[in-house]
């Protein structure tokens, strides 16, 4: 497993919307903005599915995804890749639903994508662009 550094965790906490990249089983790509993203621990990110269609279908067919971490307040730029498990019930799903409803009670919180981090890459321009960090 890959454990995030304090710098990467700070960058994740600073971002409000994350581009989530997925691909279908046949390789058709999709990227969509995700606002319900929660850093659970050094190896796990939860993504709440409020309005997913193609992204959800893709991870059900091909459980690999990537998020991009960059924006105002983030000290750094990172691409995080991982394996996805989808939950539509159970304790983790209920906890994610409560986390979303605490901020925005009107969102549906349909399913939970559990994103287990496998790799982290540098995205800042320069000599280290694309370098594997973790």
From TrEMBL:
It holds the Pfam family PNPOx_N. This is Pyridoxamine 5'-phosphate oxidase family protein. Residues 4-121 form the Pyridoxamine 5'-phosphate oxidase N-terminal domain. InterPro entries: Pyridox_Oxase_N, Split_barrel_FMN-bd.
């Amino acid at each position: 497993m890959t454990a995030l550094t304090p710098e990467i965790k700070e960058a994740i906490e600073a971002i409000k919307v994350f581009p989530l990249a997925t691909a279908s089983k046949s390789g058709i790509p999709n990227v969509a903005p995700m606002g319900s993203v929660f850093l659970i621990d050094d190896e796990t990110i939860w993504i709440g599915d409020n309005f997913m269609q193609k992204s959800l279908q893709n991870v059900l067919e091909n459980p690999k995804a990537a998020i991009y971490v960059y924006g105002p307040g983030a000290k750094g730029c990172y691409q995080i890749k991982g394996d996805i498990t989808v939950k539509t019930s159970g304790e983790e799903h209920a906890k994610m639903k409560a986390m979303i409803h605490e901020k925005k009670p009107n969102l549906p919180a349909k399913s939970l994508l559990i994103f287990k981090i496998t790799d982290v890459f540098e995205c800042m321009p320069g000599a280290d662009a694309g370098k594997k960090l973790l």
